[in-house]
Input
Amino acid sequence: MSLLFKTNIGRLRLIAWLEGVSLLVLVFVAVPLKYLMDEPWLAKMLGPIHGALFLLFVLNTLSVAIEQQWRFRETTWKVLVACLIPFGTFYIDKKILSRL
Output
């Protein structure tokens, strides 16, 4: 696990995982709690955390893209779009990031 934090790609993979998990919890737990059971506390708590992880993912993706000299049309856009789709960051980690 310590190797994960030593490289920019390792940090990006960790942030991708955290961002993906936070999106899933937000969409499938916090939002239904808010609208079906009138319990907004989890969405209020998790929303800003997910937002921060989203921004960290985007910034780290751009940093790794520059460092690794990714071509935008081949790799960078795929990684950036992944954070908009549930399970996308997990897919992109397996297909692209884990191979770097």
